Amino acid sequence: MDFIKDKYYDFLNKIYSWKLSLKKVFTWIPIIWHDRDWDYHHLFIILHKKLEDMENFFNSDKTHTLCAKKRANEIKTARILCERLIDNDYLENALHWHNKKFEEREFEFAHDPKTGFSMLLPDPNKEREKDFMKCGEHSRYMENQDKDYLFDFMKKKIGGWWD
What we know:
163 residues; mainly alpha; 2 domains; 2 strands; elongated
């Protein structure tokens, strides 16, 4: 009798597993459909989706671990960092005070006879150009800081993200 019971539960587990797998495939189709290989932006989108799914799981009543809510909050931190990297608002944020201080620049282009392409002419307002360059440096610094924080945080915490 135990043999039949075991086979029955094995069969039910396989059906349940197939159901979960199909559901998972359908939730990933939009992410994979839009995935491109030419830069790291899409890698952050994939990572964000995985972190979002894991956060939802650890916030659910399906976990067995006692510290599921703590793990969910850790994963949430990583997900939010990933979201910031996807949104890529670093330059816009860095330019906030620059845009209040200076008039908006009219970009001027000239034809480069050597290359055949248009090239951006230097800003006639040297102070504005110098301030803009500082904003660019600051935005790169902030983005790198978020990347470092994300991966250092994951390196430290990821070993505990299991149930």
